[in-house]
Design a protein that fits this description.
Enzyme class (chains A, B): transferase
Protein name (chains A, B): Phosphatidate cytidylyltransferase protein
Number of strands of chain A: 4
EC number (chains A, B): 2.7.7.41
Keywords (chains A, B): Nucleotidyltransferase, Transferase
Number of helices of chain A: 16
Number of domains of chain A: 2
Strand content of chain A: under 5%
Structural class of chain A: mainly alpha
Oligomer: homodimer
Order of helices and strands of chain A: HHHHHHHHHEEHHEEHHHHH
Strand order of the largest sheet of chain A: 1-2
Largest interface: A-B, 69 and 72 residues
């Protein structure tokens, strides 16, 4: 479309572009030459200051929560989730139409908590099983919850569904159905992200912290590279993003991934998976993934070079894949959010964080990343094959202690017979 | 209810019933009084004829497919799914806007097939593993597919996501984002339903056939009860539905559920679960669920009564729950569809079935029902037949020797930890 108008009337299109530029920048900004459109902008400095200040607070709080442990990180995820849902629910509603539908917002939150019980319920009870195996009564309660959790969630969902239908109001149908659809989209988005994130945390904080940090690093690097060198607009959706920022950030992120994985990989607090809900100290065998391997540099570096070998953890190679994804694909989460904002004509998803906009504005790329990290970890890192894990879960879930023991003895017998045969 | 209307005005109800029998012929029914707004309607007769005719064809084809077996039913589900997606995709698009977005429809189908690989992939490969355990190479191929299936699907999804963002066109943002959201809603709806349905089929055709039949019975009964006795409108969303139809249908459905479960429960073809992809004959121990229990009627019936006892399968009590759901809650699926049609101002979702509208129009309640049947079966039926032997069989069938050993060690570790705790 735009191409057409360019070719049909190039002069006009240049004029249009020029006029647009001067509206975005303050009217008195000096323009040394036309190509440096993104380097000089007075507002940039003020907004950068605010943004830096709240970024520091966020990062500090984040580090403290990570130090506190799995359960606290989970709680943080839930809080973020509630804020995001709130921002998104608010976004698309029309106050005047809502006034005629008492209790309609409540329905959104009913679905929200149903989704929460669904996504976290199973996970929570599996962790609980490991936490309280000694108490038989609690074990049975938890088993019951696991067993009927799906049914309970379905029941709650259907209750909301029936409620929705019974409160349909003439002339409001279209608004109500659109809201219903959006509620589902929002919940899908918010819970897909956060349930994967929580799963990552319990596989080892490493698998949450590294991807999340890479996104932050990429964002910050893109911001600064764009700030100082940005000239060439990257994509129409986000006029502030530049190729210089994108490429600079990519290199920074991939390099950081490799280094950061080595640093984070040294702490058992971060690398050990946690199978229960306790918050105490963690000890485990980190496994071969985090055992440094020695690579000789002889022949690769000049004679006088101080290092004769490097020690690289295998996990660092995986970190490269995460870095690549964080810098190349994850930004599309941001483009998506930008496009969405433009489509529905608003600037930010909210105003919770000064200089950043809403929580959702900060989470756009994190979401894409968390899902990738989870699936990457499941597919390429987890040493145990998936099927063993699945069957083990089935055993712990569905069999009583006695039955589990019978199964164990049976398996032992079979192995014994096999050995006799060989 | 039927009794009520009979007793209140026997003559009239006979008259109505008589008129109805001749319904299939003359379209010149006279209108006795104004309050019977739903009993007399000239178009009703013609549409009823068409509808009956195509219903018979559908039911015939359906019975044949069920006779052919699991794989064929699955194929039918997939065909229905494709038609539904097609109808729904068509519904909300605007032809004039699509013309400016070449390849945009293709994206919908890209997501559709990604969802298909995701929902069926895991299921399919699990069944394949059981089909071909003897062939080591194929086994390894299938294991690989299982292991990387999630990653492949994620990759495909992200490819579509990036494609979407790169093809965003100025001034079309809102349309494109809405389409994107609707695509997700449609896929969620279509695949939630069908993946649960396919799971039901392989748990035993019984668990697919009974719920699906109950919906059909409820639909037909509501139609006829409404046709003959319908006076009191039930809900504004569907002006053709009446309380008489609803209540008459409920009683019919619950009764049918109890009887039908007994009939279907006698065929091993329907009750045995299938663990592989073959289509041959099925033999199994149907389990206690399908073993008739004797209930003595002495003391409950008069002396001369011919039956002294009844034989009831335990599954029949479960069938009552399914019948209750099919008649009370599942119709809300229909109300939802009606409301949706009114909200967006169209009559039918499509025109694939003469007299019925689109496939989607026939599937609205089936969807709600299939999900319920699956969750009900998982929560209240399956657990009873879940035994050590079944899991042991799974282990020996699905895991390699190494994996079996890992599982054994893991179990041992868990027992050891448990003992330490006590």
């Amino acid at each position: 479309m735009q191409k057409d108008s360019n070719s049909s009337d190039p002069l006009n299109s240049i004029r249009v572009r020029h006029r647009k530029r001067s509206t975005e920048a303050p009217p008195d900004a000096t323009k040394p030459n036309g190509s440096k459109l993104l380097v000089n902008d007075r507002n940039k400095y003020k907004s950068m200051l605010i943004r830096t200040y709240s970024s520091i607070w966020m990062i500090g709080g984040f580090v403290f929560i990570v130090y506190m442990g799995h359960l606290y990180i989970w709680a943080m995820i839930v809080v973020i989730q509630i804020f995001m849902a709130k921002e998104l629910f608010n976004l698309l509603r029309k106050a005047n139409e809502d006034r005629q539908l008492p209790g309609f917002r409540l329905l959104n939150w009913h679905f929200f908590f149903t989704a929460m019980i669904y996504t976290y319920g199973r996970f929570l009870s599996r962790q609980l099983v490991n936490t309280v195996t000694s108490d038989k009564l609690l074990y049975q309660l938890v088993s019951g919850l696991i067993k009927y959790q799906m049914f309970i969630c379905y029941f709650l969902y259907i209750a909301g569904f029936v409620w929705f239908i019974l409160t349909l109001k003439k002339k409001m149908y279209k608004y109500q159905f659109s809201q219903y659809a959006w509620t589902h989209m929002i919940l899908l988005l918010v819970f897909a992200q956060s349930s994967f994130t929580v799963a990552n945390i319990y596989e080892g904080i490493f698998w949450f912290l590294l991807p999340a940090s890479l996104i932050v690093i990429n964002d910050i690097a893109a911001y600064f590279f764009g700030f100082f060198f940005g000239r060439t607009p990257l994509i129409k959706l986000s006029p502030k993003k530049t190729w210089e920022g994108f490429i600079g950030a990519s290199i920074t992120t991939i390099f950081s991934a490799f280094v950061l994985a080595n640093i984070l990989g040294r702490f058992q607090w971060l690398t050990c998976p946690r199978k229960d809900l306790s918050t105490g100290w963690l000890y485990c065998d980190p496994g071969p993934m985090f055992k440094p391997e020695h690579y000789s540099l002889t022949g690769w570096v000049p004679q006088g070079f101080p290092w004769k070998e490097v020690r690289i953890m295998p996990v660092q190679w995986h970190a490269l894949a995460l870095g690549l994804f964080a810098s190349i694909i994850a930004p599309f989460g941001g483009f998506f959010a930008s496009g969405f904002k433009r489509a529905f004509k608003f600037k930010d998803f909210g105003d919770s964080i000064p200089g950043h906009g809403g929580i959702t504005d900060r989470m756009d790329c994190q979401m894409v990343m968390a899902v990738f990290a989870y699936i990457y970890h499941q597919s390429f890192v987890m040493s145990q094959s998936f099927s063993v894990e699945m069957i083990l879960e089935q055993i712990l879930r569905n069999l009583s202690f006695e039955e589990q023991h019978i199964l164990y003895m049976e398996l032992g017998k079979i192995f014994h017979e096999r050995q006799l045969m060989q």
